[in-house]
TrEMBL record:
Protein name: Electron transfer flavoprotein alpha subunit
Annotated Pfam families: ETF (PF01012), ETF_alpha (PF00766)
GO biological process, one term: fatty acid beta-oxidation using acyl-CoA dehydrogenase
Family: Belongs to the ETF alpha-subunit/FixB family.
Positions annotated to bind FAD: 212, 237-238, 251-255, 268-275, 289
Subunit structure: Heterodimer of an alpha and a beta subunit.
Domain annotation Electron transfer flavoprotein alpha/beta-subunit N-terminal: ranges: 9-195
Length: 324
């Protein structure tokens, strides 16, 4: 019978529709390696996804198939089977849409504590501790279960730790018995490919966001130019989204996407608490705003007070000149 590390940390790898390991994998397994021995679970993935999990630091990779028509329940069934076998000290899951759904269902089924949207994990004498950034990043708080292994969803981009690649992982096919628990069924799915060379907002290492200060949809192109010059993803404030400058999928904040990039550039954004809630954990924040008293400057590492219509074209020009 297969034995698993005594300090195993079970990591559910997010798998893309094409069977690849999602970009969150390296940080999830990296986080796991700081608190124990990562054991990865790859459900419905390709060989490339298994290889990616090992390359990220998982010495054991469990694989399982999925009934792709039923949403999330087969993932919970497989996670439950893996948990029962491995008996890990914690379960780490990406704080993605699917990850959050699976984590909630699994924690309820296994009667385990759930910690969501964490920005880091550590281990103390009593077990695993999850670290959270709350109230718009105003406070850092910890959570830890009083019994059992915690189920933890990790904010994409928040963890820098990376595991050491494992050349020859132990790969095991997991036997999963379908629970038959009720789940939504996906009807015909049409994959809409949006051709874009820009990085995806969630998990991007650099983000340039624009706010109401851009003034119009046409002028929002300045944000796109700056993003392209930096190789960054594009974000926006809710005011910019509400004004129709850019679709909702780009909204950063309390009711939008949470990001933790290395670099966050806020252009014409005042820095309302609801916006800060989604970007305050960025490693370096740069703000461009004509109002020197704008609250965004309270959290900015670098601030430029001035008219964005003058500054942004100059920055873009300087960045392009450096590329030549
Ligand atoms: C329940 C709730 C949830 C919310 N969720 C979110 C959320 O998820 N994300 C979010 O972003 N907001 C959210 N909001 C809205 C939030 O409170 C703010 O209204 C919003 O963030 C403001 O967007 P803004 O900074 O683009 O606009 P404004 O606050 O109007 O700021 C525009 C800024 O642009 C600057 N500016 C103007 N012209 C120029 C120029 N030429 N050059 C340089 N600077 C210029 C101004 O000085 C100003 O600081 C939420 C609100 C509520 C009540």
């Amino acid at each position: 019978m297969m034995s698993y590390p005594a300090d195993a940390v079970l990591v559910l790898v997010d798998v893309t529709p094409s069977g690849e390991a999602a970009s969150s994998t390296a940080a999830l397994i990296g986080a796991a390696s700081t608190i124990g021995s990562p054991v990865a679970l790859v459900i419905g993935g390709s060989q490339a996804a298994t290889d990616a999990a090992a390359a990220a630091g998982a010495s054991v990779v469990l694989t399982a198939d999925t009934d792709a028509e039923v949403l999330t329940v087969p993932l919970v069934d497989a996670l439950h089977a893996a948990f029962t076998k491995v008996q890990p000290d914690a379960v780490l899951i990406s704080n993605s849409i699917t990850g959050r759904d699976v984590a909630g269902r699994f924690a309820a089924r296994a009667k385990l504590a759930l910690s969501v949207d964490v920005i880091g994990v550590s281990r103390d004498d009593e077990g695993i501790v999850a670290h959270h950034s709350v109230y718009g990043g105003a406070y850092l708080v910890d959570s830890a279960p009083t019994y059992g292994a915690p189920v933890i969803t990790v904010r994409q981009g928040a963890v820098d730790a990376r595991g050491e690649a494992v050349a020859q992982p132990t790969v095991e096919v997991l036997e999963v018995t379908a629970s038959g628990a009720p789940g939504a069924k996906a009807g015909p799915v049409e994959v809409v490919e949006v051709a874009s060379s820009r990085p995806e907002l969630r998990g991007a290492t650099k983000v340039v966001s624009g706010g109401r200060g851009l003034g119009s949809k046409e002028q929002f192109v300045l944000v796109e130019q700056l993003a392209d010059a930096l190789g960054a993803a594009i974000g926006a404030s809710r005011a910019a989204v509400d004004a129709g400058y850019i679709p909702y999928a780009h909204q950063v904040g309390q009711t939008g996407v949470s990001v933790s990039p290395q670099l966050y550039v806020a252009v014409g954004i005042s820095g309302a608490i609801q916006h800060r809630a989604g970007m305050q954990t960025a490693k370096t924040i740069v703000a461009i705003n004509k109002d020197g008293d704008a609250p965004i400057f309270d959290i900015a590492d670098f601030g430029i007070v001035g008219d964005l219509f003058t500054i942004v074209p100059q920055v873009v020009e300087a960045l392009e000149a450096r590329k030549k």
